[in-house]
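We emphasize that the prediction below concerns an isolated chain of 138 residues; any contacts that depend on oligomerization or on bound cofactors are therefore not represented. The input was used exactly as deposited, without trimming of termini.
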Amino acid sequence: MSSDTAADQTSVSTHILDTSVGRPAEGVALTLSVRSGSDGAWTAHGASKTDADGRCKDLPALPAGTTHVRLDFETEAYFLAGQHSSIKQAEEQQDAPALRDSGAFFPEVAITFAVKPGEHYHVPLLLNPFGYSVYRGS
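Result of the prediction step, given as a token string:
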């Protein structure tokens, strides 16, 4: 890896927007895992929390040979921490589904994606109490 330059490194960043309140989701813990090949074992490679802007900019560069990345977001703690005011509003809606005893319909979100060497991958998570979506950003 000593021959790698910054331009050759593969990197990942993410951010979370709570679409139900139109604000960044602060304080969501996440882990980054990597593997080489579709049959390779997952290895934990980094961990962080989203900042006040919902961003996580401090994930380490990926090791050489990484072909797949998994981001595991711990969303339940965010919903239970009271930072998310729309859960009660959603429960009060006549047609809204009831939350389970855990307080979060999606207690965690795992996003897996393929990577190529030397590229940067920004993978935003759009989150609300009863759904989420992701995309490759820039």
